[in-house]
Write a structure and sequence with these properties.
- It contains 6 helices and 12 strands.
- The chain has helices at 51-54, 81-88, 125-137, 159-168, 192-198, 214-227; strands at 5-17, 20-26, 40-44, 55-59, 69-75, 95-102, 114-120, 144-150, 172-178, 187-188, 206-212, 235-239.
- A 6-stranded antiparallel sheet has the order 4-3-6-1-2-5.
- It is globular and about 50 Å long.
- The protein binds flavin-adenine dinucleotide (FAD).
């Protein structure tokens, strides 16, 4: 079925880290924008002639909640026309044309494995949606380990929320690796060291979900497949670019 196009209205824009904004979109005329946690929408931005020049996809960062509001968590990429437009031209009250929801980066109906979520930067968006969805729906799950990577402390997205969940949500664990902050008490360096250590002995009852840009994903997939010898069907990823 072709995806529907909507004219969303930007209700709120929050700076949540240097160069990262959360955009709250509302879909007028729609009671409930239905999607599965982990899916994305694709915007048609006025930044080119051809549609492939204009289309930019963004993961939905909130959990499905039966409303018509969506949260998107977007990083400004250096001289990127899409994120540049969203940061420079889009204001609260602006209209954004988008289609969706789309994508198969979603959890199975029945969760029978431990979940390990690996991400950097705004790659955390689909995992926030999935984790909040599991929390709110009360759907049964096993352990969830969120492994987040960024450069420095100020780049940690949704930190308070995840730290609170790590204390209150049974089975949820949260680790952060920072690559450019020497006075950080947690993991220094990249996300890879964490799962390489924690999941060094392959287990059939784990599923890895990875989200972000190609360099991190390529490295993580190679580590899991080649170095740790996990099965391909245990590895799922969403590539941002
Ligand atoms: C399914 C899907 C979901 C996505 N969800 C999100 C999301 O939730 N949040 C989000 O911020 N982006 C997300 N993206 C990426 C987004 O669609 C755009 O590609 C991004 O905003 C850059 O667009 P641009 O026009 O600013 O830069 P472009 O000119 O399109 O990008 C320039 C180049 O830089 C690379 N690049 C851009 N940003 C980065 C970065 N931070 N790190 C490393 N390389 C980078 C791109 O791959 C490209 O090669 C998603 C992409 C896909 C396919």
């Amino acid at each position: 079925m072709p995806l529907l196009w909507y004219d969303g209205i930007v209700k709120k824009i929050d700076n949540i880290a240097p160069n990262v904004r959360q955009f709250q979109l509302e879909v007028p005329g729609v009671d409930s924008f239905d999607f599965k946690a982990g899916q994305f929408v694709t915007m048609d931005l006025p930044i080119g002639e051809k549609r492939l020049q204009r289309w930019r996809s963004y993961s939905i960062a909130n959990a499905p909640n039966g409303s018509n509001a969506l949260e998107l968590c977007i990083v400004r990429s250096a001289s990127g026309p899409g994120s540049g437009f969203l940061f420079d031209e889009v204001k609260e009250g602006s209209a954004i044309r988008f289609k969706g929801p789309d994508g198969g980066f979603v959890l199975p109906e029945t969760i029978e494995r431990d979940l390990v979520f690996i991400c950097t930067g705004t790659g955390v968006a689909p995992f926030r949606s999935m984790i909040l969805d599991l929390l709110h729906s009360g759907k049964s799950h096993r352990n969830i380990h969120l492994i987040f990577g960024a450069r420095s402390e100020q780049d940690i997205l949704y930190r308070e929320e995840f730290e609170t969940l790590a204390k209150s949500m049974p089975g949820f664990r949260y680790d952060v690796a920072l690559s450019r902050q020497e006075d950080w008490n947690g993991y220094q360096g990249y996300v890879h060291q964490i799962y390489l250590h924690e999941y060094a002995s392959p287990r059939p009852d784990i599923a890895f979900y990875i989200c972000g840009w190609s360099q991190m994903i390529d490295e993580a997939v190679a580590n899991l497949l080649v170095q740790l010898k996990y099965d391909r069907n245990q590895i799922h990823y969403e590539l941002y670019g």
